[in-house]
Amino acid sequence: KAKEKFGKVDILVNNAGINIPRLLVDDKEPHGKYELSEAIFDKIVNVNQKGVFFCTQAVARDMVKEGSGVIINMSSESGLEGSEGQSIYAATKNAVNSFTRSWAKELGKKGIRVVGIAPGILEATGLRTIEYETALAYTRSITVDDLRAGYSKTSTTPLGRSGKLTEVADLVCYIASDRASYVHGVTYNVAGGKTRG
Fold it and tell me: How far is the C-alpha of 176 from the C-alpha of 62, rounded, in Å?
């Protein structure tokens, strides 16, 4: 559709993602609702890892012909640091970080920049459903109220607050622009300085 409308694709932002919190082993309820299954594993990998691969390959074919383009891969701080109850999500986001570095080496020679962005805790969105919060709280042996209180607790974030979606969007715009023409093969952590907290 983008090619039909604009003639070519200059920028790809791989932003689709899914997170289904699950434990590797649930000793309270083995093989239960909140223990990781192959079906959940496949669902997360299919969206977060295969989706990035297929979209990038399709767009990169044309970018290579044009000799230019920017590919921005949305990762997550959890891909850099790991995350309790979200091991498959974190693993797929770390795979995205590896895609970014590897594709930068392959595609940079063709005039295409590849950059990653790894947001940390951001302001609330509609993606925080009660189902998601219940599952994540369960995997961390806390209540949903405790989980929600943790969102606003900023002691692990040196800047003392959650990030804004606009701050991530601003970075996307910068990376996509010619002002970032020498930025390539890196993943920016947009997490207010939070690491391993």
Answer: 17
User: Which residue, among 77, 93, 70, 47, has the nearest Cα to 185 in the 3D structure?
Assistant: 70
Give all domains of the chain, ordered by start, each with its CATH number: 2-190 (3.40.50.720)
Helix, coil or strand: residue 93: helix
- The pTM (predicted TM-score) of the whole model is 0.91
Helix (H, G, I), strand (E, B) or coil at 63: helix
**Strand positions, DSSP E, the chain:** 11-14, 69-74, 112-119, 187-190
Plot region of 116 (φ>0 → left; ψ -120 to 50 → alpha; else → beta): beta
In tens, the pLDDT along 60-72 reads: 999 999 999 999 9
Which of 89, 132, 138, 188 is catalytic? The answer is 89
pLDDT greater than 70 at residue 59: yes
| Residue 4, token pair as written in the block | 């039909």
Residue 152: pLDDT band with limits 50, 70, 90: low
Assigned token pair, 96: 């995205």
Q: Are 119 and 172 in contact (CB under 8 A)?
A: no
Between CA 100 and CA 107, with CA 106 as vertex, the angle to 5 degrees is 80
Q: Is 89 a catalytic residue?
A: yes
| Residue 150 exposed, middle or buried by CB count within 10 Å (0-12, 13-18, 19+) | middle
Q: What integer pLDDT is reported at residue 197 of this predicted model? A: 45
Residue 74 has pLDDT above 60, yes or no: yes
